C-alpha cells in the first residue's frame, strides 16, 4: 500500500519560518527541520536564514556531505507545488558560509587548517634537512 505524498505550496512553507516550526525547501522537496535546528553544525542562525524558504542554492553552495543529505532525508514531509510567482532559491552569503564553518568551496575550515599545518611541518622538516646538510 503506497502512502500519498503531501504537497505544500510556497505559502504553506513560508508560514513555518521560526526555530520552533521550520520548513525548508531543497530541490522542490519540503522538509520540517524544526527538530534539527539545535543540532545543526553551522548553528541555528544559518538555518533561520532559509527558514520558510527555498534553501536549495544555499544548501548546495555550502557543499553538504552525503551524511548531511542522509540526515536531511529523515525530515522529508512532502513535495513543493510550485507556482509561477514563487520566489527563487536563495543564495547563501559569504558571511553565512564562514559562520557555518564551511568555506565557499564547500570544504570545512578544519580541512584548510590541517593543510596549512601539514605545509608548515613539511617546510620545517625541509629546512632542518638543509641545515643538517650544510653543517655536514
Automatic annotation (TrEMBL):
GO molecular-function terms, A-Z: heme binding; metal ion binding
Transport among keywords: yes
GO CC terms, sorted: endoplasmic reticulum membrane
SUPFAM superfamilies documented for this protein: Cytochrome b5-like heme/steroid binding domain
Keywords recorded for this protein, A-Z: Electron transport, Endoplasmic reticulum, Heme, Iron, Membrane, Metal-binding, Microsome, Transmembrane, Transmembrane helix, Transport
InterPro entries the record matches: Cyt_B5-like_heme/steroid-bd, Cyt_B5-like_heme/steroid_sf, Cyt_B5_heme-BS, Cytochrome_b5
Transport is among the record's keywords: yes
Native source species: Arthrobotrys oligospora (strain ATCC 24927 / CBS 115.81 / DSM 1491) (Nematode-trapping fungus)
Region (Disordered): 83-104
Compositional bias per record (Low complexity), positions renumbered to this chain: 93-102
Chief subcellular location: endoplasmic reticulum
Protein name per Swiss-Prot or TrEMBL: Cytochrome b5 heme-binding domain-containing protein
Localization per record: Endoplasmic reticulum membrane; Microsome membrane
Coiled coil: none
Family: Belongs to the cytochrome b5 family.
Xref: SMART domains: Cyt-b5
Record field: transmembrane: 109-127
Domain Cytochrome b5 heme-binding: 5-81
Gene Ontology biological-process entries: sterol biosynthetic process
Membrane topology recorded in Swiss-Prot or TrEMBL: Single-pass membrane protein
